[in-house]
Amino acid sequence: MSRRRVLCCLAAASALQPPPDRWAPRGPAQDLVEPKALSRFLTQRAVQQQLYYFALGQDRTSHAYLAEYLRPPPGDDEDKTRSPPLDEDYHGVDAMPTATSRDYLCRLLEKPDLEITIKKEMGCGGATETRRFDARTGQYINRSVNPYLKKRYHSYNVDIRPQQICRQLFAIREQVAGELVADLRELPRVDGDLARARALYEEDRPSFDDARLGDASGARSSPFRAATYELALQLCTAFAVESVLSAVTDKELERTWRVHKDSFFRHNAWTRGLRGDAADASRRSVTDLFVSDLVLATRPSLDGARLESPADAVLVRRCSIATEWADALKQVPQEHLAWNRWALESSALDPA
């Protein structure tokens, strides 16, 4: 029940693209990673990492193609309801345009190669000419407004290969999944102490150990590993709260969750706990702010023998969910094998 509740609020965040009708008789296998929200989050982070690589390589065309892929078409109220294109700097857990990873990735596997012609203006209009200073007028020479100069253009072709992009996403997805498995398994060991230290004493203690970003052998992690872990912790916390609320009635937990719930499913600035002034609450992660509010609701137990907080049940449940997710993420390579097999079989049966 708890997982359905979280998935409902995720799906309501944006208009999701349904799977194609042609998949009804014999489509690709469903996601093996459960819950679906975890699978979608993993795919989102893989896409964002690939966008980051495109940006580093100055491949603006491929970047624009992947960022706009399956984005809902514009409507009359585009500025109000249409989601922005996916961006590598987006720090949130719900940015995928489809309800499952299968619907997103397998569509890419079906797409044919594209050849796009890029046409750019040369000179000042194309932002390629050095601006010169006119000593007589004391102003820069603006040749782009000279009516006697004809505009010139140059064009070139760019190939977009969606299937190749998809298999790159497969590789990144497996890398991120492997890192999350290791990181989530560390959560039960360090979660309680760190969460209480940040909540009770406002200590500047990051939840992610930077030593995991590399080792003495020269191996390097993915560029977004620390941020991905913080987001995974955020999503895991949301599932933990919904799970606890589905099992017990806790008015204080329900009230606090109602206040913070929206912030868990939107873009937030990436932070590692407190930074700088302890009074600057805007620089704390949404998870830390939520746990801090729960700790403030500490109360005597029913027998009066000890103090208890709604945060205790959430943190315990979060640790168990993290272990379940670490096991589920081991299915990622099998997902990719099944989808690649389906793509090969579909291409072999295609009469074209």
Overview of the molecule:
- The protein is mainly alpha-helical and 352 residues long.
- Among the domains are: 116-157, no CATH class; 180-330, no CATH class.
- The chain is built from twelve helices and six strands.
- The protein has a two-stranded antiparallel sheet. A two-stranded antiparallel ribbon has the order 2-3. A two-stranded antiparallel sheet has the order 5-6.
- Helix 7 packs parallel to helix 10 and helix 9 (251-264) runs antiparallel to helix 10 (286-296).
- The longest helix is centred in the middle third of the chain and has 40 residues, at 162-201.
- It is globular, with a radius of gyration of 25 Å.
- Residues 1-14, 198-206 and 273-279 have low confidence and may be disordered.
Which key phrases capture this entry?
two-stranded antiparallel ribbon; mainly alpha; 352 residues; disordered N terminus
- Count of discrete alpha- or pi-helical segments spanning 4 or more residues: 12
Structural class estimated from helices and strands: mainly alpha
Largest sheet: 2 strands, antiparallel
- Number of strand elements: 6
Low-confidence stretches: 1-14, 198-206, 273-279
- Average pLDDT confidence is 79
Rg, Å, rounded: 25 Å
For the largest beta sheet, what order do the strands appear in spatially?
1-4
Shape estimate: globular
